[in-house]
Design a protein that fits this description.
- This protein is α/β, with parallel strands linked by helices.
- Helix content is 31%, strand content 18%.
- It contains eight helices and eight strands; from the N terminus they run βββαβααβαβαβααβα.
- It has an eight-stranded mixed sheet with strand order 1-2-5-4-3-6-7-8.
């Protein structure tokens, strides 16, 4: 299989998008998406990762991406990268990490787009900030792909991941214990108790749990299958 090509583009000082060139998504027809955080969800969370040799794909990621690809879903990654604005790494480092991640994932479990921002925490509340918990990265993906948010869900390890999805209007969330998941779970439950009671928030150890979750019987995720 021919390797997929990706377009790497700086959209502004803090905003960056990587998009699969082969994506043939018809904007006239809405598609559903899985939104993923990157560090601690798709790859091991290495603080301010800048060395491609440190990229390790987490358990269950490839299997879930393959299922999603075959089902015709979009796989969209949303990541905060404040280490860039802090001068710890730069966009070239970020692109090398991303290139390595995509290579390790391979063509059978590909990602459609990756949205990243280097906005520092001090600018989190600026109107146009992409930094999670802002929903703006999700809104940018909706504009690019005409995504049906009602039939989409997000997977994250931090409260800010889930809040970005909630702020965008999503109602379905998955929280994993990988990355910062263990230290964040109680706070997430406190903030999303109503969603948990409605079965809109699902807890997993890692993405390997997805197959054993029996999502077909989950009223909010059964449409995925």
């Amino acid at each position: 299989m021919k390797s997929r090509n990706y377009q790497y583009k700086r959209l502004s000082l803090h905003n960056h998008r990587i998009k699969c060139v082969e994506n043939t998504s018809n904007k006239k027809k809405q598609k559903s998406a899985i939104f993923f955080d990157r560090d601690g969800v798709l790859i091991e969370d290495v603080h301010y990762i800048s060395n491609p040799l440190d990229v390790k794909i987490l358990s269950g990621v490839k299997d879930l991406l393959k299922i999603s690809n075959k089902a015709g879903w979009l796989n969209i990654v949303l990541t905060n990268q404040s280490g860039i604005s802090k001068g710890i790494l730069d966009w070239d480092d970020y692109e090398k990490i991303t290139h390595q991640m995509l290579n390790l994932l391979g063509d059978e479990c590909y990602i459609d787009a990756i949205y990243a921002n280097s906005t520092p925490p001090s600018e989190i509340f600026l109107k146009n900030s992409w930094r999670k918990p802002s929903p703006n990265m999700i809104f940018e993906a909706v504009k690019d792909f005409n995504i049906n948010l009602n039939n989409s869900f997000l997977i994250g390890d931090r409260l800010t991941d889930l809040l970005s999805a909630k702020n965008a209007g999503l109602k379905n969330f998955i929280h994993v214990l990988t990355g910062h998941g263990e230290e964040e779970r109680d706070n997430i439950l406190n903030n999303f108790m109503e969603s948990y009671e409605k079965n809109e928030l699902i807890f997993m150890k890692n993405l390997s749990d997805f197959k054993s979750l029996n999502c077909k019987n989950n009223k909010n995720l059964k449409f995925f299958f």
